[in-house]
Amino acid sequence: MPSATFDSNVYISALVFRKKALDLLDLAIEQGVEIAISDEIVEETIRVLREKFHWSDERLEEAHATISSITRHVAPTERLDVVKSDPDDNKIVECASQRVPIILLPGIRTFFPLVHTERHK
Fold it and tell me: Which DSSP string do the residues of 32-67 spell out, in sequence order?
């Protein structure tokens, strides 16, 4: 089964603005793509919805439940330092490294295969 990992911006955009990000998630689900997510990605998504968009606790709980219903939780076992331009995005690669996925970082419009870490070679 193909697997993908998305940055928190994809979830935020899907929940707040809908449009392309929601279409992307819908397409992944329709195509049978397993969407992997870590606690760090969920926490960042909820934090931004709370702080930037001032969502209520009830709405945040609904968002968390929605995200949980379409994703598979993974617990990264190693810390990586591969995204030099934005070290915060290492959490996306760490999550993705638990599978052999395609990953999507903010601002990148196409999917690309993950450059495998040493343990995946």
Answer: T-EEEE-HHHHHHHHHHHHHTT---HHHHHHHHHHH
pTM, whole model, 2 decimals? 0.72
Residues 63-119: pLDDT tens digits? 999 999 999 888 877 776 766 776 676 666 666 666 645 545 454 433 333 333 333
**H or E element, residue 91:** helix 90-96
* SS3 state at 73: strand
For residue 98, give both structure tokens: 């638990």
Q: Which residue has the tokens 């395609």?
A: 102
User: What contacts 117, CB < 8 A, 6 or more positions away?
Assistant: 78, 80, 82, 97
Every domain of the chain and the residues it spans? 3-106
Superfamily of domain 3-106: 5'-nuclease (3.40.50.1010)
